[in-house]
Amino acid sequence: MPASRPDATPARDGLRARLTAIFEALNGGYGAETWHWDATHVRGPMDVLAGAVLVQHTTWMNAERALETLRAAGALDPTALARMAEDAIATLVRVSGTPSIKARRLQALARAVEAHGRLAAFLAQPTAALRAALLATHGIGPETADAILLYAAGRRVFEIDAYTKRLFRRLGLGPEDDGYDAWQAWFHDALGTEGEAEPFQRYHALIVLHGKARCRARPRCEGCVVGEWCAYARGSRVAGSG
């Protein structure tokens, strides 16, 4: 995790230490597991761009099947997607659900990329400009935009999702406001935005892996690697002792 910034307050240093301890505990529990956007699984940034759209409201397994269908058809490319008929794209991504909606979103994203000439030029924009361009694209919200920034463009932004909010609320942490921007600003203020993207990529992956394995809507607290900080886990132990 990043070194403390020179202007950090004691309170910020304390929060950073807490977040680092949580990261280390999660990494101890899930460090041997891989995430679907780890370098070992992603063939290139277009996998992330298309995958970030295809995974909306479905499982990654379905999104990955749709990605492979696009790849096999030679359509996993901004130029190809920008020129294809929407119904043709919808047929290729049907397995991911809501095919017409996702076809429209994929084509809008492909055309945004094409407006910059090529994918490398699109992703090379300054972070603020790239995020604004993504958010201005049909069907791209903050979480999808930040997934692309983090995993495709390699920018140090903290992606917020339902797993993140659930876990850190149960740990008694987080901003007063529950909005996306407030959560992201909270992490950025504590951990900093200077440095490499990889620690944020890994932190996000660990949160999701933990959320799927244990920190569900109905949590599985027994053996939780962050249970020492969690009111839910402590309550579970107390209830079990009776």
Description of the molecule:
By secondary structure, the protein is mainly α. It has 2 domains: 10-32 and 158-229, Endonuclease Iii, domain 2 (Orthogonal Bundle); 45-152, Endonuclease III, domain 1. It has helices at residues 10-30, 45-54, 60-72, 78-83, 86-92, 99-114, 119-123, 127-135, 142-152, 162-170, 180-191, 198-213, 231-241. It is globular and about 55 Å long.
In the CATH hierarchy, what is the superfamily of the largest domain?
Hypothetical protein, domain 2
Q: Low-confidence segments, ≥5 residues, pLDDT <50?
A: 2-8, 238-242
Round the mean pLDDT to the nearest integer and report it: 91
Distance between the ends: 40 Å
Strand segment count: 0
Rg for CA atoms:
19 Å
- List the quaternary state of the chains: single chain
Order of helices and strands: HHHHHHHHHHHHH
CATH architecture of the largest domain: Orthogonal Bundle
Portion of residues within helices: 55-70%
DSSP strand content: under 5%
Largest sheet: none
Structural class determined from secondary elements: mainly alpha
Total number of helical segments?
13
The first-level CATH class of the largest domain is given as Mainly Alpha
Q: Globular, elongated, flat, extended or rod-shaped: what is the shape?
A: globular
